[in-house]
């Protein structure tokens, strides 16, 4: 074959390969939402807007593994005007507020007029992402239709649940529509499988009539769904209510909202409250409260957790001076060793013993630690140095 002809054929093959490769990737324009809507009007396709942040790992996974899937690329490039916007830059800062973006990535489907048709949040697998795109093209699964159906008969449980799930999928607030629905339901009507699903998916207020009804009818709801699901809902609601207050170190509102949670009297909830109490005391440096809470509750909630016992005992080593309290921390290290023999736990126990002048107990703890370290192949230099110092005293 002529050399020039070979070169031409290779060039043609390269161009064809590049064209084919380009079609195998979902193309997301970053020219702004308005530009995408203008294209939507001209091409008669809805807009898919990916709301992302540069630091979001889930966004990166979607770009790397999902958008490069040929089936995903073919489907979305054919049916949508695809765009993306960094929610922390330029136009994205304002859109973040107006579109009520709570997590990344959030995908929003708009019609050409800018009406939101569909929303979904999170990381998807390729086939799942295609399925969501197919749903988004069906009018009966779109938000305007579901909203209208719900408003046509607010007491209809099926319509309520469908609309509720669509809102939650898109990371949107559903509290007002759930409240409107339950306003049509008396207490006798609450105890149904459908209403359990609506409560489970849509109730977020621990003081609400519906949640209080669940608390007073746990056995009945457990028979409808399962005891485990009822407990999970209760624990989840308490966690979602109190965790932001702990993270914000908002002690005033924490203890106000803690009261109704404590009134539930469920072991798992009480255990969670103990964890939050400890965490809040530690983060605010309230060591008296930390000591009081741990002394009364470690034996109930953390007695079988060797890691938590060590964690709390470490705090006592560095922050607590009361000898009676430290003696209790020594017991926690011994209990931790019963659960799992670790060299570091022996070092911790020895240091606690020394803090209350229990030299002989400290020596025994260090010798036990050395034995564990030898068995496990660990370096026991720290323990040896401490043991040598003690034996010289």
How would you describe this structure in keywords?
4-stranded mixed beta sheet, Serine Threonine Protein Phosphatase 5, Tetratricopeptide repeat, 4 strands, 22 helices, Glutaredoxin, 393 residues, mainly alpha
Number of strands: 4
Overall spatial form: globular
Structural class: mainly alpha
CATH superfamily descriptor of the domain at 24-137: Glutaredoxin
Give a description of the structure.
- The protein is mainly alpha-helical and 393 residues long.
- Among the domains are: 24-137, Glutaredoxin (3-Layer(aba) Sandwich); 285-393, Serine Threonine Protein Phosphatase 5, Tetratricopeptide repeat.
- Helix content is 69%, strand content 6%.
- The chain contains 22 helices and four strands.
- The protein has helices at residues 3-23, 33-43, 57-66, 70-79, 91-98, 126-136, 143-152, 157-169, 175-182, 187-190, 193-202, 209-216, 218-224, 227-247, 251-262, 267-284, 287-301, 306-319, 323-339, 343-355, 359-376, 381-392; strands at residues 47-52, 81-86, 106-110, 116-121.
- The chain has a four-stranded mixed sheet with strand order 2-1-3-4, with helices on both faces.
- Helix 8 (157-169) runs parallel beside helix 11 (193-202), helix 14 (227-247) runs parallel beside helix 16 and helix 15 runs antiparallel to helix 16 (267-284).
- The protein is globular and about 90 Å long.
- It starts with a helix and ends with a helix.
- Residues 4-22 have low confidence and may be disordered.
